[in-house]
Write a structure and sequence with these properties.
Chains A, B: InterPro entries: HTH_HxlR, WH-like_DNA-bd_sf, WH_DNA-bd_sf. 2 copies of one chain form a homodimer. Chain A has 141 residues and is mainly α. The first copy, chain A, is 50% helix and 10% strand. The first copy, chain A, has 6 helices and 3 strands. In chain A, β2 and β3 form a beta hairpin. The interface between A and B is large, with 69 and 69 residues. The first copy, chain A, binds a DNA duplex (20 and 20 nucleotides) through α4.
Chain lengths: 141, 141
DNA sequence: CGGCATCCCTATTGATACTG
DNA sequence: CAGTATCAATAGGGATGCCG
């Protein structure tokens, strides 16, 4: 449940933590680690949107671009490349004229997208909660 | 399950989609919508890390700063403010000298962080998968 | 249609210094 | 300790143009 991948004591009241076994198991909390980079690809500005869209089914490039409102051609291409590189997205080219490029999720991508959609649905449902909190916060300033 | 908040047909083979009822229900796929902004706060560069850390328990400012390796003082303060503003994080000041500021998750924040941790744990476990995919991708270039 | 390369600008970020 | 303010660097991202 908790992300206690490191063996050091996490909650030192003086704020001083030990340094034993810190690198035995990867942790997102360490800078420049693989898991943090992977999370970055997934949660980046357009990454999670592309994954959520592809969770609905496969898309061709421009259809996906229309689905993910506001993304530029450049950023979508860049995002999809990163996702493909990390094994989340599959890219299939049909040698027709004009060319057809189909994007879909790999198994890994599908499992990731499922978790992501789970998160998104929670947040979509809680938009009013957040809006109320924000209004209260802004009022007290 | 799927994020089919809009009523239009999503999968038009010609790539042409209708435009009926597009704005009836909020959707992350629309630009400048509240849900997308909220997602941005949560999945932003430091947002998800702060939430994951606070999911372990409450932290004081500098302890959290040490936990989230690599974050600058400025960005952590900024991130926490955004999370507090949207009702995910609670900030409690103890009027001692020196001052003590404790950060913890609200109920909403805790439920969000739980989903997030779920995603993080999947990705941490799949780091080897991603690494292999990446190696294969880079080799084919 | 589905890209990649280039230019260019501004928003984010990080260092540094200062404050209650 | 827990911030805020200021400034400089830089990476993100849009616009444009070209190509298979």
């Amino acid at each position: 449940m908790a992300l206690t991948f490191r063996k050091r004591k996490l909650f030192d009241s003086a704020g001083i933590v030990g340094s034993v076994d810190d690198d035995l198991i990867p942790s997102v909390f360490a800078r420049d680690c693989a898991s943090r980079e992977l999370l970055g690809t997934v949660t980046g500005k357009w990454g999670w949107l592309a994954l959520a869209a592809l969770h609905e089914g496969s898309y061709r490039f421009n259809a996906l671009r229309r689905r993910v409102d506001g993304v530029s051609e450049k950023m979508l291409a860049q995002t999809l490349q990163a996702l493909e590189r990390d094994g989340l997205v599959r890219r299939e080219v049909q040698a027709t004229i004009p060319p057809r490029v189909e994007y879909s999720l790999t198994d890994f991508g599908a499992r990731t997208a499922a978790k992501l959609v789970d998160l998104i649905e929670l947040l979509e449902a809680e938009v009013p909660t957040a809006a109320a909190a924000r209004a209260a916060y802004d009022r007290s300033r």
